[in-house]
Amino acid sequence: MSDGKYFSTTKRGEIHEFKEELRSLDRPKKKDAVKKVIAAMTVGKDVSMLFPDVVNCMQTDDLELKKLVYLYLINYAKTQPDLAIMAVNTFVKDSQDPNPLIRALAVRTMGCIRVDKITEYLCDPLQRCLKDDDPYVRKTAAICVAKLYDINPELVEDRGFLDMLREMLSDANPMVVANALAALQEIQELAGSGGKDLLQMTSQTLNKLLAALNECTEWGQVFILDSLAAYDTRDPRDAEKIAERVLPRLQHVNSAVVLSAVKVILRCMDVVALGPGGGEETIKTWSKKMAPPLVTLLAAEPEVQYVALRNINLIVQRRPAILANEVKVFFCKYNDPLYVKMEKLEIMIRLASDKNIDQVLLELKEYAQEVDVDFVRKSVRAIGRCAVALEKATERCINVLLELIQTKVSYVVQEAIIVIKDIFRRYPNQYESIIAALCDNLDSLDEPEAKSSMVWIIGEYADRIDNADELLEAFLETFPEETAMVQLQLLTATVKLFLKKPTESAQKMISAVLSCATTETDNPDLRDRAYIYWRLLSTDPEAAKDVVLAEKPVIADDSSTLDPSLLEQLVSRYLATVAAVYHRPPETFVSRQRMAVTLGVAEEANHFTNAPYSSRQEEDGATPGTMVSDNNAAAAAGAAAAAAASSVGDLLDLSDASPVPVPAAAAAGISPAALSQLPVLLANPGGVSVQGRLVRQGGQVVYQLALRNDTLAPVDGLMIQTNRNSFGLSPASQVLVLSTPGGSAIPPGGLAPVRVPLLVDPAKVTPPPLSTALQVALRTNQVGVLYFNDTVPLSALTEEGGTMEAPDFLAAWKVRTHGIRGELPQAQLGSITRL
Amino acid sequence: MISQFYILSSRGDVIIRKDYLGDVPRTSSETFFRNAKFWKEGDGEAPPVFNVDGVTYLHIKEGGVQLVATTRTNLSPSFVLEFLRRICTIVKDYCGFLSEDAIRKNVVLIYELLDEVVDYGFPQSTATEALKQFVVNEPIVVPPAFYQAKPLFSLSKGPTGVFKSVLETSRTDGKRRDEIFVDVVERITCTFNASGFIASAQVDGAVQIKSYLAGNPPIKIKLNDDLLIGKRDTPYGLDRAAERGHMVVLDDCNFHEVANLENFDVDRTISLVPPDGEFALMNYRTTHGFKPPFRLHATVDADPNSEYKALLTLRLWCEIPAEKASSGLEVEVPTPRWVQRVHCDLDGAGGGAAQNWDFNEKTHLLRWRFKRCPGGSEFTLRARLTLEKPYVPSLRSEVGPVNLRFTIPMYSASRIMLKYLQILKKADKNYNPYRWVRYVTASNSYTFRT
């Protein structure tokens, strides 16, 4: 042993002690030692070096000791695959033990050792155990098939284990049936959608499963119900048969059973609807039976409630009749966690109808006076959404909002003004009488969204508000300090005011705003919009009227409404799954793939570097590990488009970009093969050639260059400089540091990779027009100065920080478009850059 | 299926860890803890299901520890959450109590249990009873360190105050006694509108059984004869009967799988072989004909002597039968920010009930507490509020809503009753284990709006 052992662990004494005790001949002492080892393992100490000693304790007839050793084995077999093989003989022997507990234990543990070599030894015991007399062994063996499939799918197919699993669906023991089914489902999932239909559901299997349903454990019932839901039948009689057997499951205590049963019945409803007469009566009866159990779910723990509410949200969209009369049960309790309250609000809005709106409004008003700010805001929004959705109730909603405004609580007032703006957009020219009440609260507005909503209202109804010019003027005083959102609204509102009431003061205001927005701002959206208005007004005021005062389309409440095809998919296929909680299709977050089998000790390292994790993401290519992959792409595309459209300002933030970890391989440089694939920037046969590309690495713009020296002498004294360009890109250091062994010189015939980090230097920014051209000069001692041109790929400039959750993106998108849709499409593009 | 399972202490240390599929990095426990602790959206709690980097985290909290499962697949979240709850129950059944200390002392036993309960991420047999045959380790029962008067409000579902492992019965140890606890636990959700009428009301109840009977003899339980289930099957006239107290009407109920309901529709008896450990034999829900145990009336008036003062009067009636009493009652009155100070006068017409009050100037919460509140009594609290600005009538709507928290032992709001609990053990006439039947009604959300 080298001296390194002294540094490897500070607890050498402890490990040594364990070793001694493990070798003890006294059984209780031995047992105690193994327990201590396991305790150490649990708290994260590395006790893998004890592997041989622990395995030595394995051959014993003491069940307790054996179980302890197995426990240890499962944990460390992955990191010590070679040693684990040593234990194989004992495993095989144990799998023939007269005690079924030991037989099952052996098969279970063997399957957990994810080492390719072990599969050869595993097959025979597994085959035996699948046919074992004892159901406990059989059910353990069934799961083991799934384990084996994960390690070696071909072997499972070759040995006919899949057929054996299917046979087990007829087993007399329901536990075995459930596990066989679970294993088949798992294998199906691992095989991916490309795999064959493993279950091969026939009416015969269907009957078997229905028969097992009553006998199974609750977990097994969920497996069975899920496969029933996946059973694709077109026959209404089949559907009725299934539903008849599944309906009693709605009474189950376990919420998972209830939700899965609901899923099956909803599926059956769809099928029955295809039958004669549309199955209306049947659907009605079933709907009636589904309501009480769904409501009962709300009496469960908040966690279960949350899942139930997310599912109910989908159900009420798809089949509103089921819970139409139950809006009361979704009223919030004061001690509900926030996440439950928020979901209940959503469902209240969905169930609100002309019949129950008074009740709902009364509740919402109460909530709007509670303590929690987020909840209060959402409640006020909910009132607005009810108004937008239910025309008959709008007036009542507005009255409630006005009452709330009277409370003068700042965030309530602001939120109310935002939703009143939406109500105006839904019912134009109907409720302006309340504007006066809104105007009393101008002083309390300090949030951009509320401010811009109020400004929009003033601009939109400039001709009805007597002192509109005074009001706007008050806002304009702080114009330069406002956020972009408010500035844009102020600009538009002033134009509207001017077009509607071309008084002298309005004229003064418009010229002040236009000049401020065009000369004193660095926001391109604002500037562009101001220029457009200016042009419009100066060329043809009538046309300006047609454009700016054009009738706007009426909005509908579509915040948080799902795309119909997604809804259909979620309800009929993914109800009661994680997808139904996220309200996203599973492709966007399921990231499971068959794990590569570890053949070496690599796994050990994996635990610390997360290598399997990132490498899996790389294999996926475009499917990154985040659940918002699609949206990421969309946001990135949007950002790129926006950058191309106008926004120089945002790009200047580059230097602030927070560093983002990059795969180690990329940071360390590039391989020679990759070098030769870089685009050629300067071909100079007989001299120095340059290949290279601008990329983004670790939140930085980096020039990856490869310099080839085709001269007969070493080339040194390398320096680089860029010309002024639209993005102000400039090398962090002019002197090039070569990463070749030759140091600062490129040997004759050599190829030197260089990595040049670029910074943004405001002094080097050229004024518009925007151009992606980049001129670069390369100085050498031997061949003088070389010039070449390149283009800046926008992907190298866009920041990585654009990740956002889809609902946020949608919400932000909506907020932006609300005020300005139909007026200036370009402003929408620009607004994305800030997301 | 489940990729990993772990139990975290309140500080985020991993106490128990099992990795089943190996497709989620070990560091996920830290990722989880960080995300759950600093949940991005406001200061609310993290929802029980959330996704970080393609890994779905499902978690519950109980006994001061967090149980977490991770997965990369699209499984059923309620399945996992129910399963985590079940693990809690199993730990409680075997270790007598669920706490960080209890888990740490029984690590090996819990691993042994987990090995039987989950295989490769698939839940297996989770019945406490069935697990017994696979368990060789002995539990170390750790009674809770500070189990005092507090639990009245933190009343979790189920028979409280029994901290005993299922492994301790006369079968294993002659000195241990056999006993069975049957608890009827009800939680009231009730909202009164400003005029004092019930806006919505619901009772969620459960018949909880905790059994320590050696040899698992079958038992038989009978409920009220006048029990009706399902308003959907009930002719409307019966609703009135329930109102007048002639019937107990349940909106919905469900039963544990061991319940044999053959005779339930005939004579309301349930026979079962109670498995060891704690389980809910029956869960039910009713909105019909129950009498709210407390009523409260709040008024706010201007003080004729000072415009910077106001008078808040709370009158409270305890309407449960006189022979019962609420053990512990807390009335919580939120007041607006411009209330600076409060001084209260207490006056108990019900006589001598220990009561006190306090006002928190940071949260502006006025609390009125009773150690014990007997049925049929009436209390009044007169509070003088000192205001920051002159009194306005809108103060009335800014005080409240008033929340009540209480626990009433030996009382069931729905009037559901256990008529008898019979242990059907024919072979041994001397076998006469202890039978405990208890009722408890507690507030879930009991709110008076103002």
TrEMBL record, chain A:
Subcellular location per the Swiss-Prot or TrEMBL entry: Endomembrane system
Chain segments carrying region Disordered: 609-629
One cellular-component annotation, GO: endomembrane system
GO biological-process terms attached to the record: intracellular protein transport; vesicle-mediated transport
Domain Clathrin/coatomer adaptor adaptin-like N-terminal: 15-540
Gene Ontology molecular function: any one: clathrin binding
Subunit structure: Adaptor protein complexes are heterotetramers composed of two large adaptins (beta-type subunit and alpha-type or delta-type or epsilon-type or gamma-type subunit), a medium adaptin (mu-type subunit) and a small adaptin (sigma-type subunit).
Protein name, UniProt field: Beta-adaptin-like protein
Species annotation: Volvox carteri f. nagariensis
From TrEMBL, chain B:
Keyword annotations from UniProtKB, A to Z: Membrane, Protein transport, Transport
One GO cellular component term: clathrin adaptor complex
Family membership: Belongs to the adaptor complexes medium subunit family.
Ranges annotated as spanning the membrane: none
Pfam families according to UniProt: Adap_comp_sub
Gene3D superfamilies: 3.30.450.60, Mu homology domain, subdomain B (2.60.40.1170)
Protein name: MHD domain-containing protein
Domain MHD: 177-449
Source organism of the structure: Volvox carteri f. nagariensis
Coiled-coil boundaries: none
Cell location: Endomembrane system
Any one biological process term the GO annotation gives: intracellular protein transport
